[in-house]
From TrEMBL:
Highest rank taxon of the organism: Bacteria
Organism, scientific name: Tranquillimonas rosea
Protein name in the entry: Sarcosine oxidase subunit delta
GO biological process: tetrahydrofolate metabolic process
Coiled-coil portions: none
Molecular function as annotated in GO: sarcosine oxidase activity
Gene3D superfamilies the UniProt entry points to: Folate-binding superfamily (3.30.2270.10)
Length: 108
């Protein structure tokens, strides 16, 4: 079972209390964008196995959004942080590099 620490309220919540929100730190395309840019955003994004930065909402708790860094293959969680952060904190990136030296994952 996936358990994430909500940085907003300090609770360790299991996946039944959370709602996924997709990729974090992604430039979302919408009205006013070109057809090519919207197609790239909607259909042509990479989805590799491994570490991802994701958005989560503590739906059955404080109700706030936060970001999490986790491995999609093993469900290993490297850390969670505020949704108002524009890039993953250095300590989380260092933790990923320490545990997964072979994986060079950049933020989108």
């Amino acid at each position: 079972m996936l358990i994430l620490h909500c940085p907003c309220c300090g609770i360790d919540a299991d996946e039944t209390e959370l709602t996924p929100g997709g990729t974090a730190h992604l430039k979302r395309e919408g009205p006013g964008s070109s057809d090519e840019a919207f197609e790239r955003y909607l259909f042509l994004r990479e989805n590799p196995r491994g570490v991802h930065f994701e958005r989560w909402r503590h739906a059955h708790g404080c109700g706030k959004w936060f970001h999490a860094a986790r491995c999609t293959m093993t469900l290993e969680v490297f850390g969670t942080y505020s949704a108002q952060t524009h890039a993953p904190p250095r300590e989380i990136l260092d933790r990923i590099a320490e545990r997964r030296p072979q994986e060079r994952r950049e933020v989108a």
